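4.2 Preliminary Data

To establish feasibility before requesting continued support, the project team ran the inverse folding procedure on a target of 304 residues. The structure was first converted into the token representation described in Section 3, and no sequence information of any kind was made available to the design step. The complete token record follows.
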């Protein structure tokens, strides 16, 4: 899921409905769920050859599931990996497990930050039926004949977000943490800007050759791109602080001045992203809220 703040890629590069071999040992099938937060659709990846793993099987859409199963017909599916539990990434896992017998591994189930509030806002975007056979810890590996996938904890877009390093090809299946077509939504209460920035810092220290993201085409020169993403976020943070210094106190006021030429469909996501920045600024002592920080709160620049 994205806030569409970066230039989009050629949509034809990630067309839906057909399996594309994107590297010697990685195939991609894009689900037919396009939208302002998903670009052309969710990318499901088949990793390996004859003995394979499926990463982020996608939404529980019958034609997509059938196409994914047809793509691995005659092959052994050893693992079904899930980067995070948003409903465009994980729901198809149960049907793939039933059809292939492969275990679901990866992200932990969604845990609401405020359990008493139920599923509010973007928390409702989570797949609450998701039931993994194994939750993978940071650094843990799963393997089959010809593939080894290592877990890289990358919270921020969601609290349970993971990426998977594909050891044989020096690549990273980055889920929604880093995408080439747009920046990622970081939306409270589940999303955390502090965690997201720490995840970007961690990815910058890695030597992955290329990223295969959850939406859109590949991220090339990933270390350079991740540096640019972090810089973009710091620029956004600086803009928010300037608006607080200028006397803007509410999120709608800040969004109207910070996000130029914003697609009206993304105003809500921009507000949540701004709240994530404000939460991080409050935690670092740079801003404060009158009462509990939330979309309806009033915010101020903290005195130096």
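Position-by-position output of the design step:
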């Amino acid at each position: 899921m994205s806030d569409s703040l970066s230039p989009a890629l050629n949509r034809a590069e990630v067309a839906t409905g057909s399996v594309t071999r994107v590297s010697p040992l990685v195939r991609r099938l894009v689900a037919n769920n396009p939208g302002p937060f998903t670009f052309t659709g969710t990318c499901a990846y088949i990793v390996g050859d004859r003995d394979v793993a499926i990463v982020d099987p996608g939404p529980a859409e019958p034609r997509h599931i059938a196409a994914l199963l047809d793509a691995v017909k005659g092959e052994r599916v050893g693992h079904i990996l899930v980067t995070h539990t948003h409903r465009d990434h994980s729901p198809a896992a149960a049907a793939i497990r039933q059809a292939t017998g492969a275990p679901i591994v990866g992200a932990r189930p969604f845990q609401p930050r405020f359990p008493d509030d139920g599923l509010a806002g973007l928390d409702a975007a989570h797949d609450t039926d998701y039931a993994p056979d194994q939750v993978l810890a940071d650094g843990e590996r799963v393997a089959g004949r010809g593939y080894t996938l290592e877990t890289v904890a990358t919270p921020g877009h969601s609290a349970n977000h993971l990426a998977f390093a594909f050891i044989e090809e020096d690549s990273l299946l980055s889920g929604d943490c880093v995408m080439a077509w747009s920046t990622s939504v970081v939306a409270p209460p589940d999303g955390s800007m502090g965690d997201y920035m720490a995840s970007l810092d961690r990815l910058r220290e890695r030597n992955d050759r290329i990223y295969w993201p959850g939406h859109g085409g590949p991220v090339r020169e990933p270390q350079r791109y991740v540096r640019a993403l972090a810089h973009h976020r710091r620029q956004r943070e600086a803009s928010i602080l300037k608006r607080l210094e200028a006397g803007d106190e509410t999120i709608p006021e800040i969004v109207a001045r910070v996000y130029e030429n914003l697609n009206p469909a993304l105003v809500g996501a921009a507000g949540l992203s701004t709240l994530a920045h404000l939460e991080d600024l409050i935690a670092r002592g740079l801003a404060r809220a009158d009462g509990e920080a939330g979309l309806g709160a009033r915010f101020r620049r903290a005195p130096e």
